[in-house]
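Q: What would this complex look like in 3D?
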Amino acid sequence: SQKIEQNSEALNIQEGKTATLTCNYTNYSPAYLQWYRQDPGRGPVFLLLIRENEKEKRKERLKVTFDTTLKQSLFHITASQPADSATYLCARRFSGGYNKLIFGAGTRLAVHP
Amino acid sequence: DAGVTQSPTHLIKTRGQQVTLRCSPKSGHDTVSWYQQALGQGPQFIFQYYEEEERQRGNFPDRFSGHQFPNYSSELNVNALLLGDSALYLCASSLRGAQPQHFGDGTRLSIL
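A: Here is my prediction, written as structure tokens for the whole assembly.
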């Protein structure tokens, strides 16, 4: 089956450091992976999409990589701030049509001053 | 430019009852997907509507049904509610199924 696995343990880091979150997928490579941010009581907010043929994508302090050999995506936040504290969700498109997304359980990030 | 709006924000029901949740997609979007998110889990796909038809369905029983109206808004209906249906129900919209999807803030459904 097509699954997304994210580290369920919370990630605690110091302000100013780089946060790195991991997303592993099973089965064959999806056409793309997406990363979303979710704050408590709110819906997910889209951050970045990386396609299978892209190794790396950047947006301001965010960077995403896609390694089809390792079946893994890494999500980096550089110069992290307390405002970056949230749950980060990784999602893959379900191979088989339309744009059904399969989400991981998310990793909670806490950035401490 | 209004984003995805969902109503109500919170709802409390008892087992066996029926519930209807509503979603208005982001302006310009025509495709609506519904997701269920249990506490501490990622969203799980329920189904997707496009051109007023259910196009794809996740692994949810027939108690979950939906509808899309000509103005692209959508409803999610759940019959014979179970305690396990307690969750955050999210609506996401897009244009013709393109990525990314834009999510609303959800309806928090609690079953007593």
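A: To summarize the key features: The mean pLDDT of chain B is 95. The CA atoms of residues 41 and 87 of chain B lie 10 Å apart.
Q: Very helpful, thank you.
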